[in-house]
Amino acid sequence: MSSYYISLLLCIFTLSAHATVYYVDTAISSGGAGTSWATSFKYLQDALTAANSGDEIRVAQGTYYPDEGAGKTNNSQGETFTLKTGVAIYGGYPTGGSATRNWISNVTTLSGEIQQDGNLTNNSNNVVKASSVAVSAILDGFTIRDGYITGDCNSAIGAGILLSNSSPILNNLIITSNTAICGGGLYAFQGTPTLTNIMFLNNSSIEGGAGMYAYTSSYTLRNAIFRGNSAGTSGGGIFNYSTSAITPSIINVTMSGNSGATSGGVIYTTSGVTTLIKNSIIWGNTGGEISSPSVVTYSIVQGGYTGIGNLSVDPKFMSATDLRLQPTSPAIDAGNNSLVSSGITTDLIGNPRFYDVTTVADTGVGTAPIVDIGAYEMQAAPIPASVDNKLALFFVSLGILVMIGFSARTKLTG
User: Fold this and answer.
1) CATH of domain 20-314
2) How far is Cα 97 from Cα 88, in angstroms, rounded to an integer?
């Protein structure tokens, strides 16, 4: 074995040997050292300060504010949760802690409502930030909401999440009720972030990209919902901008009920970008569906879009606010298996990503079971949202935004 590989193995062993798991629980009366559930940090910011590359942070259900913790300025709009390279942050643990988590039933919220007065204009400017972080930075299992920033499209960006030259892994997130000039829910400047199982709900932008704005970012977006996002100009769902050739990917995504006031009601793409849209549903948006240039395959697009395997037929959602598929939906078994990213085995809410509905003829491509088009995979019969602790997520998909397990409290300073 070469000296290079020996050094690499020693490095990996050293990192794993010294990795620390930190625990955070807002329900604890006073924070401890954070190295067990019994001695949890009370504030997430304290865990982020302590964590180094290779460490993990486990966060119990509840609401966390970026201005709380040692060294943080109470009610300061500039305070934010900052991601770190090599640090994985997981929400969805029960109060008091457990070895297992369920991010759907144990709702864990990162909130910009720092003054808790119902006035959006004094909220945190960016709830979450990442600057020059690598793929080893992970944020998984959170609701990110109520960020607010105003100004212009050069600086008033990414009220929910702001990524700068960063390529983190973002999984199992609900990004909702954030407002910016550009990129209300999320703004990605350069980098190659990977987003899986994401719901963009009711975000807004004064200009473009209410759900998400990507500036020269070759992101990958999988198993996602965009609903109720509204842009003052273009891209109610996503605004893709670049002056150089990039190819962001959108796979098994459902977009409905979004609006763009001028064009590209759901996806607006400038000439430097070729957006790859696969196995997705884009239907029922205001201001148009997709602006060119995009390469669209095995997707349902209202009004039609040139490409292999595309359809322009009603996808038959359960309702305008419940974007699961009816048993007679043409999206069932109509996708292309080869377009699903490697390692993806479940849909947005954890059901098998490949499921053969025997009463529906396969019209897609691949060996059965054939993947459905869109974020949800139809099972043998419509599965009640309450099954497998999915009721909370279903409520959110309806836009009701019921935070199960959340109780109002007086914000503590730290």
Assistant:
1) 2.160.20
2) 17
The answer to whether the peptide bond before residue 293 is cis (omega within 30 degrees of 0) is yes
Q: pTM of the predicted model, to two decimals?
A: 0.90
Rounded to whole angstroms, how far apart are CA atoms 43 and 348? Answer: 29
Q: Please report, for residues 29, 298, 300, 376, the alpha-carbon distance to residue 310 in angstroms, rounded to integers and kept in the order given.
A: 56, 5, 6, 18
Full pLDDT tens readout for the chain, 414 residues: 544 444 444 444 444 446 999 999 999 998 899 999 999 999 999 999 999 999 999 999 999 999 999 999 999 999 999 999 999 999 999 999 999 999 999 999 999 999 999 999 999 999 999 999 999 999 999 999 999 999 999 999 999 999 999 999 999 999 999 999 999 999 999 999 999 999 999 999 999 999 999 999 999 999 999 999 999 999 999 999 998 899 999 999 999 999 998 877 899 999 889 999 999 999 999 998 998 789 999 999 999 999 999 999 999 999 999 999 999 999 999 999 999 999 999 999 999 999 999 999 999 999 999 999 999 999 975 555 443 334 444 444 444 443 333 333 334 334
Rounded Cα–Cα distance for residues 197 and 351 (Å): 12
The ranges assigned to domains in the chain are: 20-314
Q: Over the range 300-328, which residues count as b (16 or more CB within 10 Å of their CB) and which as e? A: bbbeebeeebbbeeebbbeeeebbbbbee
